[in-house]
Amino acid sequence: MKIFKIVFLISFACIFCTQLSCKRDNKAYNADIEKQKVEKVIHKSIGWAKTKDINLLYSVIANDSNFIVVNPGDRIVKGFLDFTSAEDFWMNPDFKAVRYEIKDLTINFSQTGDVAWFICMLDDINEWKGQPANWENTRWTGVLEKRNNSWVIVQMHFSFSQN
């Protein structure tokens, strides 16, 4: 009977320790702070164009082959290298970012806290050769992943609203 009690206590201790180690450290995860970080990444991913700080853009997106952007129409960007092919357009002096506005931004997180997704409405006001080149009333959704303690966008989807 004494061996049974020892085995039971050891088993209980192992299960208890396993449960504690599997729970997220609430001190290390603060949903409000993480939401602010994700929001900053979202703004950087569109706001970089005003100063043409391409390095800022590249710092907030996944630099790998799994990165995806779905644009209005039939253009799907697959991978970081495909994404960088638009650099000639963005960095062209004929392209000028005027302003942007993000409306109704909603951010959600996975239970593990290392994946976030968002939805918003975007007005992206630009010029091409002095003429308007705007995306107005655009639905924008995206997925971010926390990698090496930094949030990066791994997927985005843009579509034009009918409203």
Overview of the molecule:
The protein has 163 residues and is of the alpha+beta class. It has a single domain (30-160), classed as Nuclear Transport Factor 2, Chain: A (Roll), CATH 3.10.450.50. 33% of the residues lie in helices and 37% in strands. The chain contains 5 helices and 7 strands; from the N terminus they run αααββααβββββ. The chain has helices at 2-22, 31-47, 54-59, 80-84, 87-90, and strands at 68-70, 76-78, 95-109, 115-128, 131-132, 135-147, 150-160. Strands 1, 2, 3, 4, 5, 6 and 7 form a 7-stranded mixed β-sheet that branches. The model is unreliable at 11-26 (pLDDT under 50).
How many domains in all? Answer: 1
How many helix segments? 5
CATH architecture: Roll
Oligomerization state of this entry?
Answer: single chain
Largest sheet report: 7 strands, mixed
SSE succession: HHHEEHHEEEEE
Cα radius of gyration in angstroms: 22 Å
**Overall spatial form:** globular
**Which CATH class is shown?**
Alpha Beta
DSSP helix fraction: 25-40%
Termini separation (Å)?
Answer: 74 Å
Structural class: alpha+beta
Q: Name the poorly predicted regions.
A: 11-26
- Taking all residues together, what is the mean pLDDT? 87
* Beta strand count: 7
> Beta-strand percentage?
35-45%
Could you say what the CATH topology is called? Nuclear Transport Factor 2, Chain: A
